[in-house]
Automatic annotation (TrEMBL):
This is Zinc/iron permease. The keyword Kinase applies. Belongs to the glycerate kinase type-1 family. One of its GO terms (biological process) is organic acid phosphorylation. One of its GO terms (molecular function) is glycerate kinase activity. InterPro entries: Glyc_kinase_flavodox-like_fold, Glycerate_kinase, Glycerate_kinase_RE-like, Glycerate_kinase_sf, NAD(P)-bd_dom_sf, SDR_fam. It comes from Purpureocillium lavendulum. Keywords: Kinase, Transferase.
Amino acid sequence: MTPLRILVAPSGFKESLGPEEAAACIEQGIRRVSGPSEAMIQKMPVHDGGEGFCRAVVSAHGGRLVHLHVTGPVGQSIKSHYGIIGSTAVLDMAAAAGLRLVPRDARDPTRTTSYGVGQLMAAALDRGCTKIIVGCGDSGTTDAGAGRVKIEAVCNINNLLCGERGVARVYGPQKGATPAQVDLLSRSMDSFCRAAQLSLGHDISHAPGSGASGGLGAGLLVLGSSLRPRTEAIDEYFGLGRILAQPWDLVFTAEGALDAQSAAGKMTSEVARRATQRGGMAAQTQVVALAGSIGDGAEDVYGTGVAAYASILDGPLTLEDAMARTADLLTRAAERTMRMVQVGAALGARTAAGLEGTAPIYEKERPLSFVTVSQMSTQRAITSVAPNASFNVVTPDTFLTAVPPAESSLPPRRARHRPGDRRKRVLGFLEKIPKDVDDWDDKTPPDEELWTLRNLLTLAHLDPEHRAAMSWEVLLLECTEHLRSDVFQTDKALSGFFVLVVLAASEVFLVSEKIRASKSRLNNALRLFLRSRPFVSEEAELGDETLKKFRSGCVMGTTVLSMLARLCLGNRAFVIPLLSKVALITGGAKNLGAEIAKQLAPLGAGLALHYNSAKTQQDATKLEQELKSKYPKVQVRFYQGDLTTEAAVNKLFESVKKDFGKIDIVINTVGKVLKKPITEITEAEYDEMFAINSKAAFFILKAGAKHVTDGGKLITIVTALLAAFTGFYTSYAGSKSPVEHFTRGVAKELQARRVSVNAVAPGPMDTPFFYPQESPEAVAFHKSQALDGRLTDVQDIAPIIRFLVTEGQWITGQTLFANGGYTTR
């Protein structure tokens, strides 16, 4: 067998992998599937002028590196370098002003600088260099190169400086700019262009390449430099065009993000264009693109020669986790892709058997044929890549009897019973599934559940004895497996993918439908399958807890879980809303704080729970045992302390940040109630009330404003008595009242960081704190003022907190009165 000729030509993944590392990962993934006798692999890392460009050029041409210290993008002194090849200096701006050099908490392109790039150029000129090559890519700045820059640049000439597609609007958000800062940067670029026009006598706002590296290209133009298309430069320095001109069977390329920008000059599309535009051999070279994320407009790369693309993600991940796992994810994605290529090759070999002298299988007289289970979205996706495809639609009533004929020709499809006793086993087991969801129990062994779901998902899978005789171009594969959730560890959770692998003129396309059933609710899984859409019902369980009211009644998030699943799923997938978030709850060991912790744990949040005194230790221990038994993968830590001093508050926040690495959410439930006539309140009681209810709340907000991550949440529990004046609660209501004003002020201060700050005001709560100071008559009165004639329960308030920290991002600076009508404000 002639081995496949495979070229691996990836770009880098920003802040994660360089092109060389990415190429090594892809090669490793391919080798897990295909040995040297099956695939001949050549690696060609593609440097686009970004990070690593200087080192690669110097290595390719026998130069040397010069190391020196320059000013970094946030003003710090950093160790950088440039290369010397004869009288030519080579540098990449990423080595002095790259995004990797900007700490995540300092990503503000209104404050970063490319001054260090000018220092590198000045150093090269001082050495007597007559030519300077600047690699423009992976920048962490948007300042139009307002440092000391000179000479020439290798860049993406499709990047413009101004306008709706200008550098500030397209790339500013990637570098940490808020919408307001994007507008500011865009106006700054416009001002720069007006000043440049006065100097140069012509407009550079839309000059090709002017937007490269945050506008560094425009700065170079002002100084009389030339901007060179990076594809030309890479051809010269690395011989990319010569290598792509060879007759490759398969080309792997990769980059960090695949979106509408990818088809407009990024190296992924350039590799595809050159690999597939070589005359007679073009139709035989297939290009597969792998990416860290799939964005809007990614499908535009099909027009550049890419045959298929996929996200490397294999599950819901935060950006930090995805970047930490990039090498492993890329290796696994390459392995999955290569396995799909093997399936396509096997189908092609089997189909071609006995067809000597015939034309390729993908022709009008031999259309592709499919079995599908009422999958209109699947049919549309397949038709988009195989317009002549025909479908045998199997309805839910007939899915157990449907099977393609065994003849080698392709006559119209007809229904047929499966041979053997497989159908009887399926029917027998289906009879055991209760019609009512609530009748199902956990006694059925998980393996048996898995076996049943597997049979439901392999409706048209051919029996082995029939497979060799079939001339189908489509094989239905089942990939059902146990889903061990990182958060819930529910061994019985099931995940089903039914994947159609379509062979069309040596091109492999993947079409996926994802269904997910929770725990042992297998009849729910059947319903979800027949509905043919991703869905989580309000009653579907995840672990031992029920996650209700997902956004739009179904799913949240936009990550891609499987190879090209976005063709059918519209880029939607299941996510855990607070996965990898850290929530600090003061007063979190019992009552309302404990209930909030119980509701955030199934959402994936790490929990830092504070309690005040040693007498609460028993409650903390009990809560810890409950949370860890239900959610063993959720990190839970307890902290004891009196928060009536700023030093104690700071110590708590620093301890949590040391243990968890960050704080995303702060929920303050600390409070003290005092019911007493004003004439009897002592100075000590007054000081204690304001120290707990007002002073502690102030310094918790202060510490939260300092430590919480951008986009974080600060929530304080206050009281409905802010709007209801009743006797004997003067000191309590008065000590809570300032918190409402703190909330409004801090919300304004933090809105630029997208941190929402709110207060929640419950009515009288049915907790042990309430009853000691109330008479039976007073309790009855308080109950009579609210819905259902009852007090507020902690389970009435905790879901509101859960909403604020997940979907309530547009609510800030507010006091939410949640008291069942106890007050009408």
